[in-house]
């Protein structure tokens, strides 16, 4: 057996242990740095990478005003304190902090941000119905992890902006630059961006910015390089059909790709299950079927790339996605034998 084959076998054994029920989340903290040599030169757009949906929503502020992402009618209703408590049950899509998600193997973060109307200055907060923590605090938490794990790479996808003019955007972009500095990867041909490429340049962060100002900063990747089709359904069978269809339509080259393995509540869903919340109404019941779909996938040029989920800790989601990369090794082995 060659040394490379021995290392690949050891990686597979580690992956099986990490995916075992009850495995410690920390076992995924260095999964990218532990990948076999054959996968380090594979474009990141062809690897299977776990991500979280509304990644920052583990904490929302019931005391702050309702966010500008909400309809006027909701803002009026939210003057009643009980309404905010109900909103919280449906706004929170994650239980783990950024640090905990990173330690568990999550590498893609879905970020929605806003200023606080009426607040002096340009401070920016995460938002999902209610305001979350300051973006700066989240960026610093991520940067601390990256300092401790220099071979790990993260994708930060800033895809929704609320109550922000260009002044707010310049403030946020400068915060991003201050937080990560030389870790930021400038826009490049997607197929060039491998782990080996990132390590050689000592880059660890790719920022996707869905606003025209991306053109003015070399470290901001345009939003169209990170398409994330959204099923917008409460029906798990429709979700899976949508995920299959959008994978078939995925661009072969030039972009990353997000498969959003999430269910979205309708107004009537919330009305029927007011106090149960998102996790107890939609997520718990359907996660096993969603996870089975994930297990049946294969990464690669026309396969899955980034897969996102709500409440990533409820099942062995991250480990299951990471383990899909074994299939690339098997493909590589069969090619070398033929």
UniProtKB/TrEMBL annotation:
Residues 1-23 are annotated as: Disordered. The keyword Lipid metabolism applies. Residues 41-210 form the Phosphatidylinositol-specific phospholipase C X domain. GO terms for biological process: lipid catabolic process; signal transduction. GO terms for molecular function: phosphoric diester hydrolase activity. SUPFAM superfamilies: PLC-like phosphodiesterases (SSF51695). It comes from the Eukaryota. This is Phosphatidylinositol specific phospholipase C X domain containing 2.
């Amino acid at each position: 057996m060659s040394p490379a084959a021995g290392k690949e076998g050891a990686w597979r054994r580690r992956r099986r242990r990490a995916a075992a029920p009850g495995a410690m989340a920390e076992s995924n903290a260095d999964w990218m740095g532990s990948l076999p040599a054959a996968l380090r030169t594979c474009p990141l757009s062809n690897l299977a990478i776990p991500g979280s949906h509304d990644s920052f929503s583990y904490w929302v502020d019931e005391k702050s005003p309702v966010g500008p992402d909400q309809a006027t009618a909701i803002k009026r209703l939210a003057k009643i304190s009980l309404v905010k408590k109900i909103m919280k049950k449906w706004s929170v899509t994650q239980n783990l902090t950024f640090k905990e998600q990173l330690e568990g193997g999550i590498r893609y973060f879905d970020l929605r941000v806003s200023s606080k109307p009426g607040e002096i200055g340009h401070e920016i907060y995460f938002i999902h119905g209610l305001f979350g923590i300051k973006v700066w605090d989240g960026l610093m938490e991520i940067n601390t992890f990256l300092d401790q794990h220099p071979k790990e790479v993260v994708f930060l996808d800033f895809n929704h902006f609320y109550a922000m003019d260009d002044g707010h955007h310049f403030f946020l972009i400068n915060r991003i630059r201050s937080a990560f500095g030389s870790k930021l990867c400038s826009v490049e041909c997607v197929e060039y961006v491998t782990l080996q490429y990132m390590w050689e340049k000592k880059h660890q962060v790719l920022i996707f910015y869905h606003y025209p100002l991306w053109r003015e900063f070399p470290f901001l990747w345009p939003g169209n390089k990170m398409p994330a089709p959204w099923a917008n359904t409460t029906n798990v069978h429709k979700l899976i059909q949508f995920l299959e269809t959008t994978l078939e339509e995925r661009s072969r080259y030039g972009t990353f790709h997000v498969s959003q393995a999430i269910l979205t509540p309708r107004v009537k869903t919330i009305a029927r299950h007011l106090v149960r919340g998102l996790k107890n109404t939609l997520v718990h019941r359907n996660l096993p079927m969603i996870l089975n779909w994930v297990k049946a996938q294969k990464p690669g040029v026309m396969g899955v790339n980034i897969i996102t989920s709500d409440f990533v800790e409820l099942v062995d989601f991250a480990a299951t996605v990471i383990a899909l990369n074994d299939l690339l090794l098997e493909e590589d082995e069969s090619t070398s034998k033929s």
